[in-house]
Amino acid sequence: MAEKQEIIIRYHREGASARKISRDLGLSRKTVSKYIAEYEQALAIQQSHQATADTYLAQPPKYRTGFRHKRRLHEDLQKRIDSYLLQNEEKKRQGLRKQLLLKQDIHQALLKEGYQVGYTTVCNYIRSKVKPSREVFIRQHYEPAHSCEFDWAEVRLQIAGQNRRLYLAVFTACYSNYRFALLFERQDTLAFQASHVAFFAHCGGVFRQMVYDNMRVAVAQFTGPHEREPTLALRQLSSFYHYRYRFCNIARGNEKGHVERSVEVVRRKAFAEKYHFANLQEAQVHLLQTCEQINATYRETKTAQALFAQEKPLLWANPGEMSCYLLETLRVDKQATICYKTNHYSVPDHLVGALLEVKIDAQQLICFYQGKKVATHPRSYLRHNWPDLKPEA
């Protein structure tokens, strides 16, 4: 306001030009000319409005911000954000609702593409396009090494050019929020046990309590309003690793809120942008690397890795790796193959008609005849498949 008054005084009292005033005060010539024109307009109508000129000098400057163009959020950037939103809509139509790009993912992708834009600008634009949904979480307190939560999650990936439905086994430590996840072809008993064996080996110890929802691989049947009978697989795990287990109430996912959130974070961070892989092993490596990056991210003042380092010495000792497999007796057909889950696996041709003991786990089949191993095959999860691999003795 003092600058505006100085401009008027110099122009009317000292007869200085707008150019000279602009140069002396270090202001834009357009700004100086605007103040002079507005004051002269106020003087012109002073006869009908006595206090017009005086009032103008006493008022602070006004700026017309409604006509300004957004410098960062230009048309090209808006179209790029719209393209990401269209990708999300396409994913919804394909059944990939849990692998959508969130605002922070879109912002990071824009930065990688070279756009100079702030996160708030991206959020405001997306909010104007999409109505947000909000969810509330209540923090609880947990003792180190006491409790860990487990859950399954479905994910759809393109493996070697084929659309595949796979399953994530996700673990989250309640105290440190440390996350670990593995990919499996099936959400079955063998995968359930194998995931726990791999997790406890990764941690170098066992948590005192594991928390589950009412999944079929953990709950055999309901024996009362709140009583459940565990499956044989869960009893075997609990007995071997000596941990207690707890089930959530029906439709109460908030009772294992850590892993509920982890499922969303791990799946999105790992497979929202990248979901094409040459093989399952490549996807598995990518998933583990993503978990390491998530655990290295700061949460308030410490990372999940740092907090897990505090509770790791308090874990119960790991007794070793529990064997997780099924035993089947299968007959060799005329084509020198055994059939398991509609898939055929070759064995030596001199065993045609013989009965073989087949040890089946989540990754492979091992065939035995009279106590001697005669063939080993990677397990196929396709239907009516004849693996081309030769039997490995």
From TrEMBL:
<dbReference type="InterPro" id="IPR054353">
    <property type="entry name" value="IstA-like_C"/>
</dbReference>
<comment type="similarity">
    <text>Belongs to the transposase IS21/IS408/IS1162 family.</text>
</comment>
<protein>
    <submittedName>
        <fullName>IS21 family transposase</fullName>
    </submittedName>
</protein>
<dbReference type="Pfam" id="PF13384">
    <property type="entry name" value="HTH_23"/>
</dbReference>
<dbReference type="InterPro" id="IPR012337">
    <property type="entry name" value="RNaseH-like_sf"/>
</dbReference>
<feature type="domain" description="Integrase catalytic">
    <location>
        <begin position="140"/>
        <end position="321"/>
    </location>
</feature>
<dbReference type="InterPro" id="IPR036397">
    <property type="entry name" value="RNaseH_sf"/>
</dbReference>
<dbReference type="Pfam" id="PF22483">
    <property type="entry name" value="Mu-transpos_C_2"/>
</dbReference>
<dbReference type="InterPro" id="IPR001584">
    <property type="entry name" value="Integrase_cat-core"/>
</dbReference>
<dbReference type="InterPro" id="IPR009057">
    <property type="entry name" value="Homeodomain-like_sf"/>
</dbReference>
